[in-house]
Design goal:
Nucleotidyltransferase, domain 5, Arc Repressor Mutant, subunit A, single chain, alpha/beta, 13 helices, five-stranded mixed beta sheet
Length: about 400
């Protein structure tokens, strides 16, 4: 049975040169083709890679010895000998995804063929910029890995999503847990013992949705993460757009309002100050203090303990205060999105994040504001859809990003 080191060797160029380097590159190209197109014959692989059949056969045999490919049997033929179909082995290796929210964590395990093996959702957690919060995150990850239904040695890497400024190339987090000189990814990797990659939560959610959700043939897509804050993932010409330093998509920090509300980023008037989950909770508390009634205070819950999930549950049960305030922030989010539509002219706009669970209570006022504030000639070709993956978007994105980064090392 091939071990983790043997599988890693296929994706590492360390100590490789000359023929060995070329062979590794060809192996990765072969895996990538099977990854994208599914099982194929030696002849088809040879044609695709533009190398001889004997050379292709040799590479396939080596990858089978590495435990990454297997013969899936003969393909139907109209004449002559039937050829074997070769493909990836799902259980060859695995990747863990960790999607860190403000009040909970979602974790998942992805196999080599990009199938979600297991997922654990809404593990209680409070994201704070403290060493204690980081320690709790590490313990949750350790617990998840310890309970995995697969051999831990087959887990090649972990992808972790955090909100705020993340450099996915260096592994630094500048908004949370920036306590030491070395990258947070290395700190976590040392603690857990598995290769670790970091990504911004909105970008990871967008990537999950781009790969496994509502995106089909569209090449220019915007994904809006509507949670306690507001984030944006951008797909341009079929590729995720990161920007020069990897910090693109700070949609929530556009100085949209002329108010005195200080955003958590330290500036005033950001879109998030009046059009986010945090602002929604603040507004509900204010209205309750002014005498409004709401079912969010069911079961003796105090106003200071209200969460987005409480508001979503109340809205779905026709709580008029929640529905009214959702419509208000929906109109403001829609105005912001109208500006993005005028700039990007996307084919598809996807509403994701916790607040997307409100469905039409948020989607309809957003759609109305988009129609009102964007140019009709520009927005007429833009589809507006709710996330297909929901809470799974971030987990899928983090797993896929860990997989991609590991396979491209």
């Amino acid at each position: 049975m091939p071990d983790q080191h043997q599988i890693f060797e296929v994706f590492s160029d360390e100590n490789a040169s000359g023929v060995a380097y070329k062979n590794k590159a060809l192996k990765r190209s072969l895996i990538n083709f099977l990854d994208q197109g599914g099982n194929n014959t030696i002849t088809e692989l040879s044609r695709e890679l533009n190398i001889s059949v004997p050379k292709t056969t040799s590479l396939v045999n080596e990858l089978m010895e590495d435990g990454l490919l297997k013969d899936y049997g003969k393909v139907d033929s109209t004449g002559g000998r039937r050829a074997s179909m070769y493909g990836l082995i799902s259980e060859a290796c695995f990747f863990v995804g960790v999607d860190v929210k403000l009040y909970h964590i979602n974790l998942g395990l992805l196999d080599f063929t990009k199938q979600l093996v297991t997922i654990t959702e809404k593990v209680p957690y409070k994201l704070e910029n403290t060493q204690e919060s980081l320690n709790q995150l590490l313990n949750i990850i350790r617990g998840f890995i310890a309970d995995l239904p697969v051999d831990v040695s087959k887990v090649l890497s972990i992808g972790i999503n955090l909100s705020g400024r993340i450099s996915n190339t260096t592994g630094y987090s500048y908004s949370y847990f920036h306590f030491q000189e070395e990258p947070l990814s290395l700190i976590i990797q040392r603690e857990i013992g598995i290769k670790t990659f970091l990504e911004n939560d909105s970008k990871a959610m967008a990537y999950g949705e781009f790969c496994c959700g509502e995106v089909h043939n569209e090449k220019n897509v915007l994904f809006v993460n509507m949670d306690y804050g507001i984030g944006l993932g951008i797909l341009i010409d079929g590729k995720v757009y990161y920007g020069k330093s990897g910090f693109s998509g700070e949609f929530g920090h556009i100085p949209f309002f002329n108010n005195e509300i200080i955003c958590y980023c330290g500036k005033k008037g950001c879109l998030e100050t009046e059009a986010s989950g945090a602002s929604l909770i603040r507004n509900i508390k204010q209205r309750i203090e002014q005498g409004s009634t709401s079912t969010v205070l069911r079961k003796n819950k105090q106003a200071d303990d209200i969460t987005l999930l409480d508001i979503i549950h109340a809205a779905k049960n026709e709580d008029m205060l929640c529905i009214e305030l959702l419509a208000d922030i929906g109109e403001k989010i829609g105005r912001g999105l109208a500006m993005l539509i005028n700039i990007f002219n996307p084919e598809l706009l996807i509403l994701g994040g916790t607040l997307s669970e409100t469905g039409d209570y948020l989607r309809l006022p957003i759609r109305s504001a988009i129609n009102k504030y964007s140019l009709s000639l520009v927005n007429s070709d833009t589809q507006l859809k709710l996330s297909k993956l929901g809470e799974k978007a971030g987990v899928m994105g983090s797993c896929l990003i860990a997989r991609n980064k590991t396979l491209s090392i």
